[in-house]
# Entry
Amino acid sequence: MTHHCEIWSGMRRLLTGAAACGLLAIGPQAATAQTGTVTGRVLASTGEVVPYAAVQWDGAGAWVSVRADGQFVLSSVPAGTRTIVAQALGYRTVTQTVTVAAGGTTTVDLTLVTRPLDVAGISVSVLRPDLTPVAELQD
# Structure
């Protein structure tokens, strides 16, 4: 009887180890299957590329920089409905809602509209006629 218990105990350890290995083997695939990729371009309303704009999915901790050709890639975006955000200096921030498929790639082009920059006035004054003018920024 003791011999049968030892065999059963050994088999149970073997099966437990095999099950754990199986879970480890499918773990990364299961995590990857819950995310997708969003690719696209960032363009100005004129159709020109806006290089080095910043793009992220709403809720992400980090921004992705758009390449010089206007292309971007957001990887590991959680599957489902997501809001993509793009911004650049001199442009209004734009958002667009997309559906990200698990394990898939969604393509979206984002169009930024120019926004005037608020710059404080510049004052030029001449202290003495024999000196060159001095420029200073006013708040």
Summary: The beta strands are 35-44, 54-57, 64-65, 71-78, 80-87, 94-100, 105-112, 122-125, 134-137. Residues 31 and 76 are 10 Å apart (CA to CA). Residues 2-33 form the longest helix (32 residues). The chain is about 25% helix and 40% strand.
